[in-house]
Batch of 2 targets.
Target 1
Amino acid sequence: MGDMGFSWSHLFLALFLGLALDGAVKCNGRITSSFTRKVEKSVDMPLDSDAFRVPPGYNAPQQVHITQGDHVGKAVIVSWVTKDEPGSNQVLYWTENSKHKSKAEGKVVTYKFYNYTSGYIHHCTIRNLKFNTKYYYEVGIGHTTRTFWFMTPPEVGPDVPYTFGLIGDLGQTFDSNRTLTHYEMNPANGRTVLFVGDLSYADDYPFHDNVRWDTWGRFTERSAAYQPWIWTAGNHEIDFAPEIGETVPFKPYTHRYHVPFRASNSTAPFWYSIKRASAYIIVLSSYSAYVTSTYPSFPGKYTPQYQWLAEELAKVNRSETPWLIVLMHSPWYNSNNYHYMEGETMRVMFEPWFVHYKVDVVFAGHVHAYERSERVSNIGYNIVNGLCDPVNDQSAPVYITIGDGGNIEGLANNMTEPQPKYSAFREASFGHGIFGIKNRSHAYFGWHRNEDRYAVEADSQWFFNRYWNPIDDSTKAHK
Ligand SMILES: [Fe+2]
């Protein structure tokens, strides 16, 4: 029988190895990546960097960026800055192969921040667009014009495939530039960026040097002028600086980045929702009040964000938009010592709803690393009962921290040890994510670190929709 390659010793060896490997997977599905990277400080690109190049021409529009302009994706907010004079607020736009150019009229705003005066910041919403259509648009009418293009999303529907990019805590370092390039070059082809907060890091400069808001706008234009970036406010958007007389929170951010919050009946630009293809995306603010009354006579009262979210979650129709995605800045489940438990009070308020409404995935930033959780919840705890361990919960979201855009503050590589059970994979490297929805039941998430080639995924997970396909989709269950 030797010529058939069989022997009892081989069988025992195979059995032993099989049991040993099986045991390794079952005993510890958690992964703290051992990937080693260069430990170099992240440095902001200099002001004369190519990435910040000012477009030539008198009053040329710069810092051009777009975002969704209504609730369903038939409108786009176009924003840009002119420096020499206000110029025109008009946007001309047309479809490919069309001879007719439509016009829309926007508004211009300016602001002062300590000793800085902004350029003329224009915002113009173009409406009644056709779904799934390529549009060109032109700004700077009357002086130097510049033309860009974007694709509108497909009409909202349950099986519409769509691919989102995930970027957080980007800043404007050489690493930030690498992250953006990797996103642009990724063959997975993200069509809309879900940005989880902390944009320019201008507030790391003396007096929150707002020139660094302008450079960030010019740096990101190469992507944000061509596909919508969906904005979430982070702590670096607060710009609260009473020592220099700046006491209005979010002043530069709200002047520069508009969002369609009124379309979802929100009363402030920090929390709102959009539908896009087969996704319902809820944006929350970690830095706006969210607590409520538990007093029986006033249930659900006190703060606008709480009241809005209570009504909002009840509106989501999973037969129309199966994928329920939440964006916030400060993560609830993170096992990094950096910002550990900063999201805890919001988790206490909102987590029971996320489980009840079966949120598929929560993306957050803030921590400058990547981490993916198991599906867990921790909603049984009431201070006196001692039930404070997160438990596996197939109705709970997966929590992904993607605050690894590459900003000046560097990587967060000081992690809680041992790795908590709720943490499936963690690594302190810069990178970005891609969430690709295939249909109502399946989506695929990949995390891409900047050290790898563009197509390489350093971590990934198939997501099974919590409403249509709520079986265990953890990577541990599918090894
Ligand atoms: Fe942050």
Target 2
Amino acid sequence: MNYLLLYSSTDGQTKKIILKMAEQLRTLGGQCDIRDLNNDKNFNLSSYSKVIVGASIRYGHFNKALMNFTKTHQKQLNTLSSAFFGVNLTARKAGKDSAETNVYVRKFLEKTPWQPSIVGVFAGALFYPRYGWFDKKMIQLIMKMTDGETDTTKEVEYTDWNKVASFTQQFFDFKG
Ligand SMILES: Cc1cc2nc3c(=O)[nH]c(=O)nc-3n(C[C@H](O)[C@H](O)[C@H](O)COP(=O)(O)O)c2cc1C
């Protein structure tokens, strides 16, 4: 089975998740091509049986490349078996970590013409020391308002890797 795994990632966490998924799918016998949604432009979906797209949130929005891709390739995406997952820090909280309850993923699904076969939401990572001054202050403020980590010397990975593995297995098993 040929898989295309696409990601949109700014600080690398969504890419890390995609790479983990590819590793798991390869162990299960799948063939995986991994591409960056923001750098690669010409995607030929016809040589794949299954597609996974993962993207992260920055200041309330997915990268525009995500919506553009789903609009351009909507016909093929809706015929293939396809999976979408969103990555953000809101999803670190129980009750905000599903397709129905994560505001960013819910809104994206309302707007896109793509109907993914399965949808996932994963908590991302907080990398204070790697952020510039402005982002550091903004994220600290958001974390303060949402009872999160405010120590800007810290790096915290909230991603639940068991949830990532279950999602990958579910998609591997999916027969559309
Ligand atoms: C500048 C910046 C803005 C962010 N804005 C949001 C946000 O609005 N809502 C949210 O839940 N998470 C937000 N996050 C958290 C990211 O979604 C999280 O760090 C994720 O792991 C990033 O994934 P990536 O490394 O693949 O880009 C933000 C992070 C940064 C650095």
